[in-house]
Structures are given as C-alpha cells and as structure tokens.
Amino acid sequence: MNDIKNEMNNGGKKENIDISRRNFFKFFGKSSVAVGTVALIESCVKKPEPEKLLPYLNVPETIIPGVPYFYATTCSGCPASCGILVKTEDAIPRKVEGNPEHPLSGGKTCARAQATLHQLYSPDRIKDNLIRGKTETKTISTDEVIQIIADKIKEADPKKIFFITGNITGKTEKFYLDFASNFGIPYENIIRWETFSFSGIRKASELLFGVQSVPIFRIDKSDFILSLSADFLDSGPSTVLYTRWFGQFISVDEKAGRKNKFVHVSPRLNLTGQNAQKWIKVKPGGEVVFASLLLNKIIDEKFSNYSYLKIQVPAGLQEKYNILQKDIDFVAKLLINSSSPLVIPPSYGAEDLTSLCLVSLLINYVLGSYEKNISLEGFSYSKLATYSEISSFIQKAKNKQVDILFVMNNFDLVYTIPDSFGIKSALSEIPFVVSFAYHQNETSDFSHLVVADLHPFERWGDSEIVNGLISFYQPVIRPMYQKLQSEDILIAVANKLKEGSFNYQSFKDYMFGQYGFSDEQIVKYLELGGVFNFDLAQKPVSLKSDVTEVIGKLKFNEVSDGLNLIAYVPYHIYDGRLANSPWMQQFFDVSNRVSWTNSAEMSKKTAQKLGVKNGDIIEIEKEGKKIELPVAVYYGIVDDVIAVSVGRGHKKYGRFANTGANVFDLIEPRYDQLSGDLSFFVPNISVSKTTKKLRRLPTDQGVPRTLGRGVAFFTSVQKLPEQDYYKKFKDYEKLLKKRFPKGDIEKYNRDSAKPSPYKWGLVVDLDKCIGCQACVIACQVENNIPFVDQKEVIWGREISWVRVERYFVSPEEIEHKGEHHNGHNGKESDELYPVFVPMMCQQCDHAPCEYVCPVYATGHTSDGLNYQAYNRCVGTRFCANNCPYKVRYFNWHDYYKNIPEPLTMGLNPEVTVRSKGVMEKCTFCIQRIKYAEHNAKVEKREVRDGEITPACAQVCPTDAITFGNLKSESSKVSQVRKSKRADWSLKELGTDPAVTYLEKVFDLEILKG
What we know:
Dimethylsulfoxide Reductase, domain 2, Barwin-like endoglucanases, seven-stranded mixed β-sheet, four-stranded parallel β-sheet, 32 helices
C-alpha cells in the first residue's frame, strides 16, 4: 500500500490517477508473481488530460458525421492508373478500395494502392515552396514562384527548356504539348520518364509488326501460359488487371477435373514464378536461348510453313546455360497441344531483353495467339524514354545545352537513375532546375526552386492507359498545404508571359473543356471514375517484310562464370516511390519474406560456398562501388547468383525510407542493344563477408516445410475425382464428437449462445491465393494495426491480424498428399513448390483461447465470432499461449506513439486504437458487420448475402476469400464451402474453426515433366 500512496501523492502534486481494475492489477502485480508481469504492469498508465475538440462552426451540408462517402479517382502507386474508390469520413480520406466499375481494377487493388494513403499523410511532405540561393534557402509564396518561373522562361532559349514528366496521357499530355507550343519549346524536350519503360517489348513489337506496343495478354482466355521470367503479377504493365485475370485462369474446374497449365522459365522465382506449376531453372540470360530453341522445336514439330523464322543458336550455348533438351521438348508439346497458349516475356531488366521479347512474340505469332488472346493495341507506354535516352539528356546537360529543367515527377528522379550515369553532376550543370514534388526526395536537393505540389488525392487529372479507357483523378480532400497543383501554376505562368495562352484559370477547367463535357456529363463521369469506351478485341497481325533480316541479327551473350547479381522490382515498393510508408516497409517481401530492408538472396549452395548464413552481413562490390546487405537464403534462385531488390536505400525520401541499400548504385550503364533499356544484370561481382551480423533476419517465416502438420492443403488434378466433400464433412463431425465426450458436444454446440440467424465464416481458396499479401495491408489500414520497427520484427513482435504463410512442398508430397521423408532428415528435394496460406483468427466454436482468459476478455458472440474486449484485457497472454494458430498479437509498447502526425489522420475512426499490454486479433472486420446489421435492423430485414465484405476479401484481386453467413444454405460462402477440396486447419485439435480452406491443386503430369 505504500507504493500506492507514493504514486498517488507524488510529492504533494495532484495527479489524474485511474483507480480502476487495471490499476488494481498494476499495484497488485508488483507484489504477486502469480498475477503480475512486467508487460502487465507497464500496460496500466495514467489517464491523459482531456483533449480539446474543435467542432465545425458551419457544418458542410454534404457531411453527415459517421457516414462515409466514396470518391472515384485513380491510383498513383504505379503508372497502371487503376480506378479506385477513396472512402472519406468527416471529409478525411480513410481507406482505398478498388472501383468495381473500372475495367482494370474491377473493384480490387494491389498492396501498393492501399499504401497511397500513407503518401498523402506522410510527415515528410514538402509543405512550403523553397528557393535556394548560394548561401541560404528561404520559403516563398506561390505568386513569387509564378513570377520567378515566368522571368526565367522569358530569359531562356526555348530550345534549351526541358520537362521531365511521368507517363502523361490523355488531356494531361495535350496540356504539356500546348504549353510547349506557346513558347516554342520542342516537343521532344518533354521527356516522359518512368523507372520501367517496357521498352524491350515495345521495340520487339515494332521490329516484328511495325507498331510500338505493350500488348495486352488475355490471360483469362488462355489454357497454357509459358512465362519467360515474366513479372505480370509482380510489377507488370497492369498488376491488378493481370492478377484478376490470373485468378480466373488458375482456378480449378472441379466438375470437369481440369486445370490450366503454367510453366515458368527463369533464374529466379518472383511472385509470378511462385504461382507456376513447374519451374525450369536457367542461368541469367538463358531465357532467350531457351525461347529460341523452343521456337525452332515447335516449327519442326507442327509449323513447318514458318521455317523461315527459325533462329540460329550458336553451338554449345545450350549446354553452357544448362538447358535440358527434355525441358524444351516438354514445353513444346504443351504449347502444341494447347488450344489457347500464351508466351509472356519480362517487362524490364533481363539480359538481351528485346531479343527475348522478340522471340516470345514470334512464338505467339506462330501459335496463332494474336487472333485468340493478344491485343496489340495495348497499354499506352509507347512514349516513355529509355535509359539510353535519359543518358543522352544527361550528356546534353553536361554540354550546357539545358538552361531550364522542370522535373514534374512525383517520385525521385535522382534515386532511380544509377549514379554511374552522372545524373547528379548533370543537374549541377543546369542553371535553373525546378522540382514540382509533394514529398521530399534526392532530386529536390539538386533543385534551385522546389515547388510544393499536390498529392494525387488532392488534384485533378486524367490518364488514358489504354486507348479509349480514360480514368480521372479528382480531389478527395482539400489540399493540406499549398492550394495550386503544378499545372495550375504553369497556366498562370503561361498567361503572365503571353496573355490568352490558356483560356482557362485552372487545369480542371482546361481538362474538361478539352473533353467538351457538359456539367451533367462531368458529374456522371466523375461518379463513374472515367470514360470507358474501349475495345480489347484481338485483330489479325502480319509480320514486317524484313523480319528474317531482324532475326538474323540476333546475338546471344556468353555465360558469365563468376558470381552475378540480379536487381529485381519488389511487388510492394515498386521503384521506391512507396518506401516512406512504414506499413510497406514492414511488408514481408513475397520472395525472401524479409521486411524493413532488402537482402542478398542466394541459394543454399551459394551461401555454403561463400561461408555465410541467414543474417550475416556481406559486402557486394563492383568496380569500387559497394553496398552492404544481410544474407537471405532462398530456395527460388539458381546457384552463383545473388538477387537484390530495388526501391530501398533512400537518402532523402523521409524518415522511414532510409533502410537497406540502393542497388542502383551497382548497376552499370549497360544497355540492351536493340531497345536502349538498362540491363539489371551485373556480372562478375565481388562478395566478402563482414564481421557484422543480425541477431535474426526481420522475417515472419519459420520452418518453410509442413512437416506433416495440417496447415497447408494441397492435392492434384489426378486425385480430385477420388475426393468427396460430404465424406470429408462427416469424418470431421466424427472427429469433433471424439474430441468432446458425449454431452459436451451438445453443451458447447454451435448455437450455445443467444440464438442468431447468422454465423459468419470465411472460405479461403488456396488455389487462387497467389501470396501477394494485399489482404495484409488492407487489414492493417482498415483496423488501425500499428507498424513496429525492424528491431521489434527481429524479436518476433510484429502485429498483423492476417499473415500469409508460405510452405514449400515436393512433388512426392503432392502425389501422396502428405509429408514425405524430405524435410525430416535434412535433405531438400530438387524441386519444391509453394503453397500460400492466409492465416487469420479462425473464430473457433471451441476456441482454446476463451477458457484460459482470467478476466473474460475473450469470448464468443451469438453470430459465431470470437470477440476481444480490449478494456478488459490485462495482458496475461494466456490466450496467445493457448492459440494453436498463433493469430493473437500482444502490444508490447504503445506503438501508436510511433505514428507521427499527420499519419494518424488515416486511422479508421470506426476502430479503436489499442494501448500496450493488451491482446488484439482479427474479428472479420466486426465494424463492417455491425454497420450492415444495424442498417438491416433499421430497414426491418436480415442482412443480404454479399452485403458484408471484410477488408481482406474486398481487396483480394483473385477472389480467393469468400465471406458470408454459414447458416444460410443459399449464401455464396456456403456454396463455395461445399467443395471436394474443403479442409480445416489443424482439424485434429477439434477447435471447429469458421474458416474453411480449399486445397491448392497441382498437376502431376506437369510436375513430372
């Protein structure tokens, strides 16, 4: 009691003390080992002083407190321009969803789209316009910015004025062309720059068909896909569109007992490759050799009329790349026997990229795929500059041929161009550099004038990523700092220099004026998200007359025998533009499962050769340039190759982005001979082990094998006919009755609580889950899940209500549907294939967590949910210890204190934030459930099927997650659940979970190859 008196008195000062059950536990815990733990003691804190709220003086008519509005706009996470809906509540954007009306997104998003909200609220945004002098930097007004730019343009030679923009299309492109035309600036001085320009496939299309195109591959219409290091699920021209189509392509037809086939040929398993049914390993650069031999094979086998397209492959090259003839014969047979095959090349960075794309398109042409499932009138990336072209601009700057440079990119130009190009010294040579940016970056450090731009959620714009598919940007929040977007400033500059240059006062007026819409049409199209008048119909194509000459000039690189490096684009951070989102930093890489840093991926054999293990820090060096990274041993990479992701290692992109290393520093200016694209392959690197080492890799992956546990479910097409749902369900019922003695099963039956017409449940189709983890980020945003730093992840203290586990299985395990000797005796199978398992709270009817809680903080609701009462929890963690699924998470610290303003504006007001010392977990987005139940009650009806969609199911682009009422036989979730692939995680424990998993389906014929 003396401790209590001392804390209450505190030297005579009055304190706002909470004399509650929690404080009682706090004080009692100091003297009772049975009750108290350090975490329990620290979880009890003094009540904060009340905050002062500033109410609206005049409440806008359009705002109803607590009622969200959705604004249709366009995603800026990559140049694909997917349509999204931004949920705003009390005039504050809270959540991003896919726009169901948009042809690309179809109501879905990727993980990157979810994180664009973090860019809006980034604490490191540029808030003021800055002018840099020789001795000082000062803030200036927007009017001063307009005057300074006008004066500089007036003094400059128009031919020496350059713009570097993103992938501008639609009326935005016309605006910049009009601006240039007004002042005599050559159109070629407008350089459209994206880190990945898809130049290889563009050039290949031009050489073969005379059209620079990024074709649209109709994956949803195909029955066999051959991927030649393709990345359409990772970072391709439209990740969400291709992922949605892939969900249709890959799902099994249980009635027909049929599944489409997918083979991946590459030196590394990216996200796309991990979802293939067979991986054929080749050394870097070997893909084009494999493709050429494959083309020759299918021509010899069936298409002899195309013999003039055969490619001469140098003798011995096949053996040097370790390409097996049986693999070529096998893939050729699959292609010939398929009715609608596709061959898809990579988007960027591969050795001999254009040659690989060219041979891939030739195979598609020979197979007749252009008339079936390829649209040559594809994505609008044809005007993007290549690395070779940006190198030419850099040389012009060094030669004093650039007077003014406007950098209009909203990501980091200096960061994404390798330092070996001399971009920094080039910018230093330009007399006047203007950077329009909403976020601080390395480019702004080299700018004389930094103009605080608006975030895409604060501005107007358009994008025509496919001809006829127009997506609109519209503000979803009032500008947080400056009021004018970059185009508005340029309009003011133009009208100041030449009166009447633009007959519009704002870019919004210009854009809609150019479209010629009426006011009614503007409202209609803004509500829809754009104008969707386009056609993806396949049209016949013909080869150019000089195609044989083009083929004859193809050259093949020799094999590099040393240690080589591959730079790859991570699914979640892309080119680094999302690196300052702490939630994306905590995202576990889809390949190596490491967060908060990039790593040096290598095979087990390569690691043994170098004498390193997971977590060891190594130094990678190429011609005097060095980076240091931790080792991550990864099954999905060939020997003698190290893979490192781009997008990390920023120096000026904000407080969360300076993790890892910038692999661009090691990339040499080696261009693809045909397209001018940059090779992301660095041969003959030097690697040395340092004395530094991480205590543990910041990863969520434990043992990557199932080891006989019922956690990853898989079967084969050949086994499907033998399976029966009703038999599975009856066996499961028998198991439950055996688990609970007679009487107990009735006592703890499914309707033991207050009767309810609902029992909410999930079905997760593992055959459709690609492991992209978009569900993880969507759940974190929706439910205010805090991020933790790298140190906490290393300690295993990350919080993620949904995690996507990955287990590797061997062909022997798949054939026998169980754990084989591989993995038990330390031997690895030569072939392993991943099964992704989204794991969330299973909402068990017989939940082990419930009966161990000493304060009844966890219990069961009448509609089948396992609830968590945060204000009752005292942090004993008994529930976490007793949970076999390990889906309950403990707040070791007040993690919300780590969230700087204004990032907190993105928190969902419908979900509480949790203090340290409590457990938290998934409850199927109970706030959405209660919202729908309330509406149904007001309207005197029951909740309709499909009316409730948890964040994880809503975002999933492959529709792998189905949610609904298990008590309704007509509900979609009940229908999907009646699958012969149905199974339950750790069912032998008898917890009776509300989550049902459907087995992933492999094809044994493909595996045995």
